[in-house]
Structures are given as structure tokens and as C-alpha cells.
Amino acid sequence: MKWCQVVNMLPKVQEYLLKKAKTVKKRGLSYCLLITAILWLVPMVIVAVIYRLNMTNRNYFTMYIDTQDDPFFIVNDKFISLGLDSSVIARGFPHFNMTDPVLVQMMKYLSPAYLRIGGNQADQIVFLRNADGTSGEDVHGQYSNSSNEYYLKAPDWLSLYNTVTSANLNIIYDLNSLLRNEDGAWNATNAIEMLEFSKEHGLFVNWELGNEPNSYPHKFGTSVNATQLGEDYKFLRSVLDKYDLYKNSYLIGPSTTRLRTKDIQGYFREFLQSGSEAVSAITFHHYYFSGETAIWTDFLDVENFDYLASCIDTVKDVLGLIPDLDKPLWIGETADAWHGGAPNLTDRYIGSFLWLDKLGLSAKMGIDVVVRQSIFNGHYALMNDSYYPNPDWWLSILYKTLVSPKVLATTSEGDLNIRLYAHCAKDNPLWSNKSAIVVFGVNLSFEKGFVQLKELRADPQIFVYEFTSESTLFSQFVQLNNVTLLLESNLILPDFEPRVVEQQSFDSLEMRPLSIVFWVFANTNVDACKLP
Q: Which of 20, 52, 77, 161 has the greatest CB tally within 10 Å of its CB?
């Protein structure tokens, strides 16, 4: 019987007892008092039973934490990295003032990180070295299959490099892969010109060659064979190795789209069979859905959250077909929605659920780096055109403050609307040298969530960082423990003060509806997080 049915029976029980009391008054006062007591005690007992049943029937999320083994995985210290879309270059850096100290500081807060300069226009940009705005050669006349429309001038390249490195970020520059010779091989003339210029100015850069090459046919009306692209990567690696400055540069690729079809999987595999020896990290891109068609319910749909795991599994299946391949795996470009994001969704609080879950799930599945598209420009950007932070900027800062690269092995069951992950916590004066862990994640439900943490022993004090909207799901303003997060006028970050909760048992932790949490537990029994 459901508890609501029991509640509906209460008036009938009272009515029956009242009638019974009237028929037995003649039996004496003591008997009447007994019936009256029963009349009021029975509802109280029923309410207590209802409460107990309600507690028992709660849909808990239960997480089992491996407390004895080494870290399950250790991600890159630049795990959260950033993208700057090549369209910013193509359009002449609108609103992207490379001398603005606000822009530099906003990016610096997210360091250490890579800044990958890439996107569709990467395969349309030519580097112009000369002061008069020309390349050393006629770039249009010497290449076939080129779709060159845009230019990166040397002074802008210097300014961009200085801005990025002032923010303590490491550049990855995506070279134009569509500069091709008549035989289909990549023409490296313009790339070498850029390398020479960069070397002369002491610019240390990491590199990439092309953006989503499997999509060239429908984007540019041309194609580059995957095996040929692998050969091009090996050639580029040989060129880089000739420079003392670049012989240790990262070269990442093939930067395909998500492997959603057999054709794309085949392209990815053929590239690696040809050119895997040249790459420092293997990359693919991931988005959940199109920003042009996204609706708000997409951002709370558990099936969309699970889609990332399926994509990563597919990539790993392909990698498993190639013997002796041991390279880091990166999500080289990602956000919630492609086509620049979804207005008033990907740049609002509601977009943060997918972002944090992507960080937690990617680390748990062995992804070394996640490159967020983008730091600037578009509805998926971490800050708007006025350099004001969107919710995911704040969430990324909080993640970098609390979460260490050491990933803990966990299993879970129960409420599908709750998704939690566990890492060792970064050191902090509040829990210094106390083998601390951080459990973080999301509650996608409009109802309160309940969590049980099994195998964990720790101090009873839990340091709670609860990340919520200031008002609605569609707010650009967010709160930490009910305090709105705002930058000071001098761009100083506010103190991220936890709420300390005493909890003797970790069998009934609560999550507010539609909330994001980071729980830090100190002095734990988790061996992976104990200092040597």
C-alpha cells in the first residue's frame, strides 16, 4: 500500500473510533478515556510509519569507493584546457583585445592549461610573414585543393602569442592541412615559413595539422585520404625535429569528429595505422547535440549524459585494433553543443550539468586532456564578449581549485539522476596533509537527492561546496553556498568558503534539486590519497 493511500484512510479511522466511543460511554469514564487516547494515538503511529516507509523507499544513489588501491588514473595537470576558435583570427579579432589586462587575467585564472587555436577556419588560414601583409610566396597560386580565404599576419601572431603566454597558457596551433600539392601530399611551405618566424622570435608552440579532416567533403568540397594525412603528420614531425625549439613540441591529431559512423571509425583507424608514431596525443572531438536545435530538456536528459561514455568506448575499441599503441587520449575540442553552442542555454547555469559530468566521466574513462571550446566567442564560450564569466568559467575555476589529477576507482548504483565522481582533493589549509578526497557531481532531478558513500571512513566534518543558480536554470549568475559569485573590481576572485557539515555517517547525504556539489572529506582511509 502506498503512503498516500494510508493518509487518505486516516479520516475513516477517526470516524470509526468516534462512533465506537459513543456506543461505549455507558461502560464508564475509564473506558472512554482509553478509546479517546487510542483515537489520537493511532494517527500519530500511522504518520510515524509513513515517515519510516518514506525513508526506506527513498531512491538512493550509492557509490562504492576503492579505498585500498593506487589511483585508477592520473590525468594531465592541464586536464581542463581551452580552445580559441580560428574564426576569431579569420574575422580579425573582433572584441578580442589582446592588450586588455582583463582578458589576460580571466584566462590566467584557468592556468595551467593548453590553449588550442583551431576550428573549421584553421584549414583556411595562411600565415603572412612580411610587414606589408604578404606571404613569402604566392599561396593561392602554388597549391591545389586549397580553400584559403583568411590570413594570420605576423604582428597579430606575435600579439596573440604574448597574450596567451602572459596568461600562463601553452599554445597549440592548428596548421592548414588543405594546402596541397598536385599529387595530394601536404605542402608545408607556409607552415615552415611560420616555424622559421616563430623560431626567430623564440615562440615555443605545440602543433596540430587540420581540423576534423573526415568532414572535409561536406565542409570544403574536397577530401584528404586518412593514410595520406598520416604520412603528412610524419613529415611534419620530421620537420619539427630539426628545430631545437620544436623537437619536444607536442603534435596532436587526427582531430576527427566523434566516431559515430563506420566510415569515421575507419578514417580514424587508417590515420593511426599510418601516422600514430608521429603524434604525441591522439585526439577526437565530442559534442552532445546541435546548438541550433537544442532545447532545455536536452541538458537534463540522462541519455545525453550517457552518450559520452559510448563515444569514448567506440574510440577505445578502434584503438584496440592497433597493436602496441600507447599514446595519451584527448578530447581535442568539446562543448555541450556544436554550431557555436545554444543561446541562453550553453552559456547559462543549465549548461553546467553536462560540463561537470564530462570532466568527471572523461577522467574516469582515461581521457588525459579535455579542450573546452571555447574561452571566448560563441554561446558555448566561458566568458562573453565583455570578458564577463559565464557559469562554466566559475565551475572550471572551482574544479581546478578542489580536484587533483588522481582519479579514484568507483562503482555506483541507484538514482540515475545523480552522477558522482571521486578524486583525491587538492591540498588546502582546511584539510592539509589529511589524505583528503573530493566527491563531486550533479543532481538532475527536480527533487532532493540522497547519497550513500560506501567503504569510506573520514573525519565527520564535510567541507561542502554547493554550486547552484542564483535564480532559474537559465541564469548567467551562479551561487556558491547561496552566495552569488562575483569578481571584485580589481578582478580578485572571491574566497570559495565551504559550508562545514557534521555527519557521523555517510549513508544519507543530501543534494538539493538541480544542484552541483563538491564534497571534501579529510583524514580518509583512501590509500591513493595518503601522502608518502
A: 161
**Are residues 394 and 421 both part of a single domain?**
no
Q: Are strands 483-484 and 410-414 parallel, antiparallel or unpaired?
A: unpaired
Q: How far is CA 270 from CA 166, 227, 267, 279, in A?
A: 39, 6, 5, 14
Examine the fold and report which residue of 403, 418, 443 is the final residue of a domain before the chain moves on: 403
d(CA 190, CA 146): 12
| All residues at 6 or more sequence positions from 286 whose CB lies less than 8 Å from its CB, including other chains | 258, 308, 311, 331, 333, 334, 358
**Are 461 and 518 part of one and the same domain?**
yes
Query: Are residues 67 and 123 both part of a single domain?
Result: no
Give the CA-trace dihedral at 452, 456, 462, 464, to 10 degrees. -60
pLDDT in tens, the chain (532 residues): 444 444 455 455 455 545 555 554 445 555 555 555 555 555 554 444 444 444 445 789 999 999 999 999 999 999 999 999 999 999 999 999 999 999 999 999 999 999 999 999 999 999 999 855 555 444 544 444 445 689 999 999 999 999 999 999 999 999 999 999 999 999 999 999 999 999 999 999 999 999 999 999 999 999 999 999 999 999 999 999 999 999 999 999 999 999 999 999 999 999 999 999 999 999 999 999 999 999 999 999 999 999 999 999 999 999 999 999 999 999 999 999 999 999 999 999 999 999 999 999 999 999 999 999 999 999 999 999 999 999 999 999 999 999 999 999 999 999 999 999 999 999 999 998 889 999 999 999 999 999 999 999 999 999 999 999 999 999 999 999 999 999 988 899 999 999 999 998 999 999 999 999 999 999 999 999 998 7
Kind and range of the H or E run holding 473: none
d(CA 148, CA 130): 18
Cα 240 from chain centroid (whole Å)? 31
Give the domain range for residue 139.
Answer: 74-403
Does one domain contain both 154 and 299? yes
Residues 49 and 82 in one domain: no
Whether 113 and 102 map to the same domain: the answer is yes
Dihedral sign for Cα atoms in the order 93, 98, 104, 110: positive
- List, in order, residues 6 or more apart from 387 with CB less than 8 Å away: 100, 102, 103, 106, 376
Number of domains in the chain: 3
Bridge partner list, 144: 180
